[in-house]
Predict the 3D structure of the following.
Amino acid sequence: MLSRELWNQAAKFHGHQCPGLAIGFKAVEGAVSELGLDIDDLLATDEELVCVTENDACGVDAVQALLGCTVGKGNLVFRIRGKMAFSFFCRETGQSVRLCLKSSIGNGLSREEHQEYIISHSYDDLFEVSKPKYPLPEKARRFPSQNCSICEESTAECFFANSKWQFGLH
């Protein structure tokens, strides 16, 4: 199980403690265990670890704070399905795991009881553990910039040709 010190680190990043953050915290615990990650060196420095999250809720902050998966590095990918589910991929080993919160977790508990229940139980008591049904996402692509001929603002070349029509921008 992850330490209370790591829980406090995630809560500091998130701004408060809540059941949603606890769900992400335990998803991180599952990723650490299932992928054999080094608990003393969790932060991804680039894209060696990828998280695909099916929600945009509080738990994602635990993934960012503890595993270093971020949108900016391209190793935090949102596939919003409204599910408390997280898939983790390790590029170096090829291992992957999907953790989906069991539907019965927290029924009838107060907010505080729910949070403590999640934190005090093992990830495999809380999540259905399986393999993702999709492959490892490609690495983040980088595109050269071009200036828009209308507004002269810089934009990624891949958006330049269609930006006016796709996004109503110029």
Notes: DSSP finds seven helices and seven strands in the chain. The beta strands are 49-53, 76-78, 85-90, 96-101, 127-130, 145-147, 154-156. The radius of gyration is 18 Å. The longest strand covers residues 85-90.
